[in-house]
Design goal:
14 helices, 6-stranded parallel β-sheet, alpha/beta, elongated, about 425 residues, 17 strands
Length: about 425
């Protein structure tokens, strides 16, 4: 055993009475959110909100157990799908007036084996494993009793006064206003996570004793509180969120299922039996834009339709129609192009699309898709099929390509 390991174990023995303290992560996810109903499992960029932080917490590999405290069956089910254990909180700590500290203390009483505790907020979807590893390292090796996440802000603050009264500056000299580049700014809690020992929690504190902080870059400091935050958070998480251990690859083939995704789930018939279907011009433009950037775009359809053939010609892409085995067709396409499934993007809405959705590295469906397709889709559009869902997915693919390219660059930790 090297000296550093021996020192760490000695510190743990002195502090916790054992060589390896039990380190638990707890995510608070009450079902009764007032700002956004069932906010904690609402899809954010195709993934339930709580899923973003659970994925980061589990993949950080610094916790001996990862839990979600909830009073709601559906939140519990989603949490288990992401690999977390569930603590069913009591009605006493599920009220609107209940505090986070009360809820955490209830969990600690039920789990006396826990020595070190990390409360990761469900509303902070841009937390990465490396943030949590740094925080845990500070707790275990540097001996902090509590530690929390902060972000640096450059904002001049003024004292709040009643109307007509004179205000005064709180953090600047108005006669010597510094330039941004000449001022370090201030550290502000960003609400992403709070670490502490259970000894401190039992004293009614989550911040106290030897206090430390971990500064997070502004792009990772996302906190969703009200509905207006949602579209901003979606754009941020697509660029800076943590998508899992598997290295992302830029999609080179995008396959669009015509029925229910490219078209509305209805067919118009004339009195003479002629068939009419409508397409969204934004969807068509989205596919054209991907193709213009060198991405292979193809259509697949169970039907044989002159309308689909004309659309494929308009876009300038290949169409496979009368297709009863979509997986076999897409698999043949990717092999012919020399691609891995991780380089395939697929969007569909029917049960027949679900196998392709499961295989594709980037997958999605319209918001009105059937459940088999929706259950496996990591991206769920805001719009219905035939009403802009494909354009949303194309934009998602573009961001994924950008993110995959950026991930090849070294990331400072």
């Amino acid at each position: 055993m090297d000296g550093d390991c021996a020192t760490t174990e000695d510190q743990c023995m002195k502090r916790f009475g054992k060589k390896k303290p039990h380190r638990a992560c707890l995510v608070l996810a009450r079902g009764g959110s007032k700002g956004i109903p069932l906010k904690n499992i609402k899809p954010l960029a195709g993934t339930p909100l709580v899923g973003w932080v659970l994925r980061a917490a589990i993949d950080s590999e610094v916790f001996d157990s990862v839990w979600v405290s909830t009073d709601h069956d559906e939140i519990a089910a989603v949490s288990r799908e992401f690999g977390a254990q569930v603590h069913r909180r009591s009605p006493e700590v599920s009220r609107d007036a209940s505090t986070s500290l009360e809820t955490i203390q209830e969990f600690i009483r039920a789990h006396p084996e826990v020595d070190l505790f990390g409360n990761v907020q469900a509303t902070a979807p841009c937390v990465h494993p490396f943030h949590l590893r740094k925080a845990m390292k500070a707790m275990t090796e540097d001996g902090f009793d509590s530690l929390f996440a902060v972000v640096r802000r450059h904002a001049f603050r003024w004292k709040e006064v009643k109307e007509g009264e004179v205000t005064e500056p709180l953090n600047l000299n108005p006669g010597k206003r510094p330039r941004r580049q000449d001022w370090d700014g201030e550290l502000i809690e960003n609400g992403s996570f709070y670490f502490c020992t259970t000894d401190l929690l039992q004293k009614g504190l989550i911040q106290g004793g030897k206090v430390g902080y971990l500064e997070m870059a502004a792009e990772y400091s996302v906190d969703i509180d009200i509905d207006i935050d949602w579209p901003i958070a979606e754009q941020r998480v697509l660029r800076f969120g943590y998508f899992g251990k598997e290295k992302r690859q830029a999609p080179c083939l995008v396959v669009v299922s015509a029925e229910g995704a490219l078209t509305e789930a209805q067919v118009h018939l004339s009195p003479t039996g002629e068939e009419f279907r409508s397409f969204n011009v934004h969807d068509i433009n989205g596919m054209k834009q991907l193709a213009s950037k060198g991405v292979e775009v193809r259509l697949i359809s169970e039907d044989e339709s002159e309308v689909h053939r004309q659309l494929a010609a308009k876009i300038g892409c290949k169409l496979e129609e009368g297709c009863m085995d979509k997986l076999a067709v897409v698999d043949a396409w990717r092999k012919d192009l020399g691609l891995d499934w991780l380089q395939v993007a697929y969007i569909g809405s029917d049960a027949s699309d679900s196998e392709c959705i499961k295989k594709a590295g980037v997958n999605g469906c319209p918001v009105d898709a059937q459940h088999p397709a929706k259950n496996y889709s990591r991206f769920v559009s805001k719009r219905r099929g035939g009403q802009g869902a494909i354009r949303e997915f194309c934009e998602h693919v573009e961001i994924t390509i950008e993110k995959a390219n950026n991930e090849n660059k070294p990331r400072p930790e």
